[in-house]
Amino acid sequence: MTGDGPEPVGERVRRRLRELRVERDLTLEAVASRASIDVSTLSRLESGKRRLALDHLPALAAALGVSTDDLLSPPQRPDPRVRRPAQHRDGLTMWPLTQHGPAGGLHAFKLRIEAARSVPPDPLHVHEGYDWIYVLSGRMRLLLGDDDLVIEPGEAVEFSTWTPHWFGAIDGPVETLAILGPQGERVHLHA
Predict the structure, then answer these.
(1) pLDDT, tens digit, 9 for 90 and up, residues 127-161
(2) Number of folded domains in the chain?
(3) How far is the CA of 83 from the CAs of 78, 79, 97, 100, 111, in angstroms?
(4) Which residues contact residue 188 at a Cβ distance below 8 angstroms, ignoring those fewer than 6 apart?
(5) Residue 152 and residue 168: Cα distance in Å, rounded?
(6) Angle at 80 between CA 74 and CA 85, to 5 degrees
(7) Is residue 79 part of a domain?
(8) Which domain holds residue 173?
(9) Are the C-beta atoms of residues 94 and 82 closer than 8 Å to each other?
(10) How far is 84 from 59, CA to CA, in rounded Å?
(11) Is the pTM above the cut of 0.70?
């Protein structure tokens, strides 16, 4: 919507075309091919350089996997609250802080490492991805390859998960914020 009143239908449809295409991680070429229109036509439709004709709507909606009404109506604002339940495994409790959405595959968690998680597995885990961990409270032990590190409150670590690794508690529970790729999330919660 603009400050002067309701958003004109043509502008809304153009905005929705782009939003839906980006949301679904589709290129202009992919949508144009699915809709059987020229990619330059789709580009001009999205940018407002070409007038949107009603006969474009069914093919574009189908190409994006939505109804024509979804293109014409204003988008419903999703509930921004993250309501995924905490998950518990191997002395870890992970509270999701992000939805499974367009975060580039990265997900943020509040992570509690229980004091009982003090003995690393043999061998250490290795998997695809990258982890970022910020210690809020407690002292975290991080085994990373041949390094045995103590991470204090206020310190952050980032590392490739192709390096053998494990993290646990030293002398009590540890509270952290963690950003994990989908592979790290699977390993820490479902392995």
Answers:
(1) 888 899 999 999 999 999 999 999 999 999 999 99
(2) 2
(3) 12, 10, 9, 11, 16
(4) 89, 92, 94, 180
(5) 12
(6) 135
(7) no
(8) 87-190
(9) no
(10) 35
(11) no
